[in-house]
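yo, Catalase is done. seq:
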Amino acid sequence: MSDKRKVNGNSKNEQLEAYRVDDHGKHMTTNQGLKVSEDEFSLKAGDRGPTLMEDFHFREKMTHFDHERIPERIVHARGYAAHGEFELYESMKEYTKAKFLQKPGSKTPVFVRFSTVAGSKGSGELARDVRGFATKFYTEEGNYDLVGNNIPVFFIQDAVKFPDLIHAVKPEPHNGIPQAASAHDTFWDFVANNQESAHMIMWHLSDRAIPRSFRMMEGFGVHTFRFVNEEGKAHFVKFHWKPKLGIHSVVWDEAQKINGKDPDFHRGDLYNSIENGDFPEYELGVQVIPEEDEFTFDFDILDPTKIWPEEDVPVKIVGKMTLNRNVDNVFAETEQVAFHPGHVVPGIDFTNDPLLQGRLFSYTDTQLIRLGGPNFHELPINRPVCPFHNNQRDGYGRHTINRGQVSYHKNSLAQNTPEPASPAEGGYEHYQEKVEGRKVKTRSESFKDHFSQATLFWNSMSNPEKEHIITAFCFELGKVQNKDIQQQVVDMFAKVNLDMAVQIANGIGVTAPTEGGSDITKVSPALSQENSIKSAATRKIAVLLDEDYDSKVVGNVMQQFKKQGMQPEIVAPKQGKLKTDKGPELEADHTFLTADSVLFDAVYLVGGAAQDKTFKEKAGYFVKEAFSHFKPIGATQDGEELLNNLDIPTLAAGVITEGDSDDFVVRFTEAVKQHRFWDRDVD
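structure:
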């Protein structure tokens, strides 16, 4: 474990310490504390006789095993989490009275769970999907949950349609296929007949839906919330998490292969980064709109299928979150954590976003069945760091032992305690928004524009990103069996961009539309990942090595890689130390059986004088696949000759050769920062 790894010394961590148990070196006991003398054999009537019911240890052990599983989440079942802290950069007192957003430099413990949405708990992590990004702040005023995604908009505008959306995207009920995929008839039938999804689909089929890691994706609160300050003045607000490493993705062919090579790729990346001391960091940004400006935009700011373009409403960076500790137990923490957008603190309130309003009911409801009752707040990972007092009693899993005879309000036996707190004493007060109107089942006319921001997103993409979106459409719709659904979708997205729709139609063999398009020319550069932060930090470099190499040069290059924050790992034909008479022997981290190019960000080909046909074949495939995925390729020593024999042009973008070791490292590092070289000819 790296010396950089630390355990954050905060009140939440100290609270959890009371629940941690280390069984190492201890005697086995029952759950009642009775020491157990035998755990290999059940109690029998004779050594070949029947097992006896009086064997209480067997019954307890088996009963607990039979009840170990709880229902997985209907959505966001596949998730991974970590602990950390949030540090405030500057006071937000002007906008909100939330205490954790008042004092610059103050730190608040957090717990963050990342997830995929559609797949089951056992699905692969590189599915084309939305990623959940849920953050629990353990504040002195109670828990605040910012429950968001890595995409800032959503498929639907009203929560009443959420069951329909999820039913459509889940495996089709007649055959249970496909798992964790939207590339099937029912999902695209839903899209074609619920065209409010147009904007979200553009994001869903972009590179954002196949992120390189949890550490390299944005997070969004999705909904419009309210900030309310001490004077009672309100502002509309949207929340953003901006990763310090930038926003980066894999390519689709790579994603499919990673799911086979390492279905735990994202969780492993997060876990190992924290263990190595490379703590993931995200800056918290807010977009703020004064209440009086609610109707000054060409979209409804409460519509969850719309963004607030950053060029129109700048993102103000107000703090930083650092994830610095892995969980001790995945079930007890990651699986039992309960998020809810209704977990707020004074100074943060809701708006009339109909999707948000529905979530305020749904999240509590689902925790009741998943965690066995109303006391899920008592589980260690969910307990607030501040004390809680109320008249709620009993129920499954009750931990609190309430003293006294009173469990109701109002009362005189306990001097009317616990009593409500006034707003001045920290009591939560709902924002007094004036509301009036007839009770109707409809939606606002201002919610009926479904295509303008879908076009904005398309206009904002780079040419490679546009190509990826078209390819994603062709893949997804190519899996749809019903030609009528394919045609409906193509005709629908002609309203976004006609040329895009024509290319999709030609790719899947349906009639190309002749009408459509949009006169919207506006762009938002912030939407393109090409404009994101470029960094070589924490990038994994595969060093392809065989025996009889110059270890002094290779060792020096690897050390310089590490100084640049990169993580070189040796891949060789066999494990163990690799023989050489040119310096100390280096040891392989992987073989070609246990490693693959899709698991690395770049390749450094060295080879060795002893490289035989097998090495050349294995290394050659490794390098060519990385080249086809537009990754940086470096080659020195015997690796240069091998590279030339692979018909990979040494002058191609992102291919680094020649020069002394220092010059090579500088140029290779710059190539790694670029992440991909989309203008490379990979035919």
